[in-house]
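Person: Show me a sequence?

Helper:
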Amino acid sequence: MNSAGRALVKPVEQGVGVFSAMLAVFARDVRVAFRQRQDLLNPLLFFVMVVTLFPLGVSPEVSFLQQSGAGILWVAALLAVLLSLDHLFRHDFDDGTLEQLVLQPQPLFLLILAKTLAHWMLTGLPLVILSPVLGVMVHLDGNSIAILCLTLLIGTPVLSLIGSIGAALTLGLRSAGVLLSLLIIPLYIPVLIFGTGTVAAAAEGAPVGGYLALMGAFLVLALTLAPFASAAALRISMSNS
């Protein structure tokens, strides 16, 4: 186990509170991510490259980009999050930290929630921050860009939470990345549909409150159920490894 893993396990073993344990897991994942900058930058570079190259490969016409720009950014964000999910538990599994985490007295689903929130802060939140610049690149107007950022701010945590289930299920398997994509992409489709639909409705001047309410419901549902499912999947994967 590396020094970061020992730094995590030691305070958790000392009987600290649940919130302190979650904070230790969150802080440890952030520190490890900044030590492995390649894994941190790859999803962001992928996001920028997809949005940049799409007009070159399809059509640079302003009218086309205005109609499809929200979809382009949402698909690129979805794939960028998917690209980073394989590393959510992989490094901890390889160095033995994950096994120690499973054995801790604190509820595993809360520790996984902390890891997932760290993943979103390091992957999903930067995508939200970059989206206004890329929205201008695909000729979205100011209102559409604002709604796009709001939908990404609500939707990207859902992508990370759902993705944590697939990452836990495929832990330790060969070709885990391909299997993870097959498992998770169908579950991402409702978020993608309502994310792009919200921006399209805003561009047409239609009310978007219903779309945002549904996306908020997706987020609440994912926050409620995904950590439990991920914890169960992680125990299964660890017992079979």
User: Anything to note?
Assistant: The chain has one domain: 3-240. The two ends are 17 Å apart (CA to CA). The chain is about 85% helix and 0% strand. Residues 170 and 178 are 10 Å apart (CA to CA).
